[in-house]
Amino acid sequence: MYALLLTLHALLRWVVVIVGILAVGRALLGWRGAWRWTPLDARLSMIYPIVVDIQVLLGLILYFFLSPELAGVGGTPLGDVLADGRQFYWTFAHTFVMIVALALIHIGRVRMKRADDDAGRFRQTAIFYGLGTLAILLLIPWPFMTPYGRPLLPSPWT
Ligand code: HEM
């Protein structure tokens, strides 16, 4: 169960990254270029929060029930957790920032729906989805992030 959910969480990261970059990229171009809001924009704006919701749900299950990264943390004094880069990353940084990113993306969706015109729709999407996606990109455990970095693809593919 742990291996399956971790593999799904690792793979779904790529869907989050690709859909996020498409949604934010189109929003920025549409905002600066005064484009019309098309059905493609509406679809990207709807799908992105759903994909991030599923990713966060998988993350919460790993966090509370399955991950060995969190298993030893319970009895450890808070100061030691904060001082250990790896424990700090998995206990607080990855989790907290990803949940903030999810909130930003949902706020962006609501504000996009309330906007009066296409320029407003693109602006709200560019700002809120943009900030959320930036936070996600910064807090993914990329391979170069020693000591908690992970491979670009989960083990069966590497
Ligand atoms: C968009 C949001 C998120 C993205 C893109 C993301 C991405 C990732 C990636 C790429 C990994 C490494 C997987 C591997 O080892 O190959 C990972 C691990 C993990 N994530 Fe997330 N994550 C997100 C949100 C969350 C949230 C909200 C939580 C907790 C509430 C969470 C908890 C975890 C845990 C516990 C692990 C490590 C599991 C382990 O190695 O045992 N993630 N995440």
Written overview of the protein:
The chain has 158 residues and is mainly alpha-helical. The protein has one domain. 77% of the residues lie in helices and 0% in strands. The chain is built from 6 helices and no strands. Helix 2 runs antiparallel to helix 5. The site of protoporphyrin IX containing FE has 26 residues, from helix 1, helix 2, helix 3 and helix 5.
The string of secondary-structure elements, in order, is: HHHHHH
Mean pLDDT, as a whole number? 94
Query: How much helical structure, as a percent, in the residues?
Result: over 70%
Number of domains: 1
Number of helices: 6
**Amount of beta strand:** under 5%
First CA to last CA: what distance?
20 Å
Please tally the β strands and state the result. 0
- Major sheet, described briefly? none
Question: Unreliable stretches, pLDDT < 50, 5 or more residues?
Answer: none
> Rounded to an integer, what's the Rg over CA atoms?
17 Å
Unique ligands: protoporphyrin IX containing FE
Structural class: mainly alpha
Envelope shape: elongated
